[in-house]
Amino acid sequence: MNKRPSRLAGLVALLGVAILAGAVLAGMFFPVVGGLGALARQGITAFESVPDQLDEPQLPQRSVVLAADGSIIATVYYQNRVEVPLTSVAPVMREAIVAIEDSRFLEHNGMDLRGTLRALVSNSQTGSIQQGGSTLTQQYVKNVLIATATTASELDAAKGRTPSRKLREIRFALALERRYTKPEILERYLNIVYFGAGAYGVEAASRRYFNKAAADLTLPEAATLAGIVQAPTAFDPTRNPKLSQDRRNVVLRRMAELGYITSVAAEAAAAIPMKEILNSSLVENGCTSSYAPFFCDYVLQVMRTDPAFGEDAASREALLRRGGLTIRTTLQPQAQKSASAAVSTYIPNKDASGRAAAITMVTPQTGAIVAMTQNRDWGTSGRGNTTYNYNVNTAYGGSIGMQAGSTFKVFTAAAALEAGVSPAEQINASTPKTFENFTNCTTGEKFGPLTFNNSTGSGTYDMPTALAVSANTYFITLAERIGLCEQARIAESMGVMQGNGDSLLRVPSFSLGTMEVAPLSMAGAYATFANHGVFCTPVAILDITDRNGNQIAVPRANCRQVLDRNIADSVAAMLTGVIDGPVGNRTAASMSLDRPAGGKTGSTNDNAALWFCGFTPDLAAAVWAGDPRGGFQYPMADVTIKGVYYSTVYGSTIPGPIWRESMEGALAGSEPQAFELQTTGGLLPARTLTGNTVVLPSPSPSPSPSPTESGSASTSPSPSDSSSPSPSPGPTPSPSLSPSPSESGSASPSATDTSSASATETSASATP
């Protein structure tokens, strides 16, 4: 009921522009005399007061995130556009758009008075705005003004049907026609115009509707696209195939009228049903539908936070979503798919327990992150969905991290070796054991006395055995002797920090892993032991190319020696014993691969978090399992996972098998590599290569006592009940039927011990 005034206003506006344009042309081609001269002078003065320099910014183009092998991980965009040269657009597409939108395109100079008057007559006959009279050049101008509008008023001015807008378009169009050739203008138009269904530009539209390049468009396909431009929503063939088909046929008839095609060709193309030519392909925006959504998001977070990609957050986001970047990442699809399958096998995505698992895999020699996954889908709501990346720190979209448990003991071992402690030295690791000589290495204040317990029993151990059985008081004794600063410094030099970005605390419970960390930092640290003490900062991006083919600088691994090779190799040798060493020390035997490997389990107080960190010479990985809602409120104990009840879950019950299966899949098809270690104290790797045969050392007598860090799931009411078999989730190796001590216990650090919880694989209690 309100349409008539609007239509009338539009007709009046079009008439006004026609009159003004006529006056301008009259001033150009006729003497300036009498009333006509006055009108022309007024028209020319008004016309020339309008600026003619059009600001043509770079059009937003979609960026693509690739795996290391060039396969697509995700596409990111503000507008789904891929710019192409006119030579990459099928000739029939060029002809179709000119035929239906501006048949005199090759004849006019940017303003087509004949077309404007024709539109005026047509619209007056129908009583509505059916034809706009705009040339392709004017349409290009309008699209540019819309694209560059930064305020609501500028956007209204660019879209409004007013004489002033039309006058401005004509002014810009005339200037552009002097600056560019017709093919250049047509190329710009085809790259900017909206084709509906989220597709900007002819290339994106061709791929959206027909899943092919614009260079390969056929006649009916080209006519379909050309017909969409007038009303992109109404003529979207995926939403309104009948309307779109009718409009396509209008284009075909017009092409025949103008001689671009024959009537026979037009009729043949018009006879093809729309459903027979449609082959729609939606390009999802962002990481949600990617097979590696959390790795993908980490890549985007790196770009959003690194000043190298822009001076502020807005400019970095603009580069990412508008820049037409090709971002080649370090992701190896084989490793990613293997890791994803492993975490989902042991803790399914929507498991009723709500428990989670995450893994990051890193190449030691380069820092390349080859896999990063967790048993969650990307999403903001619903069971099994999250947007938190459990693998990374808070700054990159992660949580505050998870307590690392006994996986931290390697840093204490390295610090002790650096301080001159012999790995063969026998140290009393009784339980409970009280420590009275801890000193705050930064303030000089005294800690304690503090009492810590082992869950593995008491004994006197050398370092390899203590590391294998994870004897807490052994490593607390080392820390008391060497001081609290060096173990933390070594860990930090290998990239370990708290999940919130803070430095590690220098506290007596350090080796018990009481601080929250992320799997990514632990994978990088363990990779350093595999790489002879050379730390390579984990990186996710190999290279970035902009829309013009220019390289953009990316973060580098900056590999550097942070630990003496002999010390790093000695720790690596001891960790190989945990997997492939003498029977008594081989507490992670179920993680054995078809090649040399080293690793360490970890669990925290009350089984709030479980870990396995390990490596081969050419790949390192860290696995965490727990409950994102809070490990102490929802511990990995008295829990049913994948239909199997566990009274207690250990580091080698779920994290270990996830590590093993992920590594097996990632390394499948590659030759086993030997550890080339230079160790101290006569330490040797537990596994060697002879030709293509892996050789295990001969079993040696177990130490006395020979506690074991059990990695089994117990289905019995208590760990001491050994009569009941222990089922395994999926393909987990059968847990031991023998009773085994708990890996965890309770801890109450003193007021001066600022860590909030303790301890891995033992209980620790502080005495006032």
Automatic annotation (TrEMBL):
Residue ranges, compositional bias (Pro residues): 726-738
InterPro entries per record: Beta-lactam/transpept-like, Glyco_trans_51, Glycosyltr_51/Transpeptidase, Lysozyme-like_dom_sf, PBP_transglycosylase, PCN-bd_Tpept
Keywords: Carboxypeptidase, Cell shape, Cell wall biogenesis/degradation, Glycosyltransferase, Hydrolase, Multifunctional enzyme, Peptidoglycan synthesis, Protease, Transferase
Domain Penicillin-binding protein transpeptidase: 358-622
Gene3D superfamilies: Biosynthetic peptidoglycan transglycosylase-like (1.10.3810.10), DD-peptidase/beta-lactamase superfamily (3.40.710.10)
Residue intervals of the Glycosyl transferase family domain: 70-255
Species the sequence originates in: freshwater metagenome
Region (Disordered) residue spans: 691-768
Pfam families from the UniProt entry: Transgly (PF00912), Transpeptidase (PF00905)
GO terms, biological process: cell wall organization; peptidoglycan biosynthetic process; proteolysis; regulation of cell shape
Transmembrane segments: none
Protein name per its UniProtKB record: peptidoglycan glycosyltransferase
This enzyme's EC code(s): 2.4.99.28
GO annotations of cellular component type: outer membrane-bounded periplasmic space
Keyword Glycosyltransferase: yes
Molecular functions per Gene Ontology: carboxypeptidase activity; penicillin binding; peptidoglycan glycosyltransferase activity
Biased composition (Low complexity): 707-725, 739-768
Keyword Cell wall biogenesis/degradation: yes
Reaction(s) the record says it catalyses: [GlcNAc-(1->4)-Mur2Ac(oyl-L-Ala-gamma-D-Glu-L-Lys-D-Ala-D-Ala)](n)-di-trans,octa-cis-undecaprenyl diphosphate + beta-D-GlcNAc-(1->4)-Mur2Ac(oyl-L-Ala-gamma-D-Glu-L-Lys-D-Ala-D-Ala)-di-trans,octa-cis-undecaprenyl diphosphate = [GlcNAc-(1->4)-Mur2Ac(oyl-L-Ala-gamma-D-Glu-L-Lys-D-Ala-D-Ala)](n+1)-di-trans,octa-cis-undecaprenyl diphosphate + di-trans,octa-cis-undecaprenyl diphosphate + H(+)
